[in-house]
Design goal:
By secondary structure, the chain is mainly β. It is about 10% helix and about 55% strand. The protein is elongated.
Length: about 170
Amino acid sequence: MTHRPLVALSLLALVCQAAAFGADDSATGARCTLSEVEVVDQRRIEGCTAQYCTTGTIRGSHGLRGTIDADFDSFAAGPATTPEPARTISFSSVSTITTAGGTLQARETGISAVGALEPARRFFAGYGEFIGGTGAYAGATGWLMFAGRNTDGVNVTDTMLVKLCLPRR
């Protein structure tokens, strides 16, 4: 059984749900956009100060083009009922997206089985909330969701869906 259709259907449901909410957040007066973002060239950083670090290039709409760096700072065992429980973990990380317009930071929580023995099971997925920003992203709120697979033991291919809300200026 492949998980790709499930991930694609989940992302499609999120796009439809977000579109139904409209582009404005009347509670905060913010202008919100929804972007699909591709993460390419993601790789592990050796010698990082966190427990595990990655860096990569992102390509997305609404100015979300640049780099993404993630510092994974806590891990826990994954669910005992997964196909390879000894190789599945949950994690928390802080990611920084750097673009020409400024930076965005997100606190993320996810699950990963990139160390699975069976290559088809090498996946990761998670959710993050924006916790800070600079430049054009100062005061940003919103969230991101991501999913991907480990493709060669180190590098991953990652797709994100981002809801970014910026204060009206």
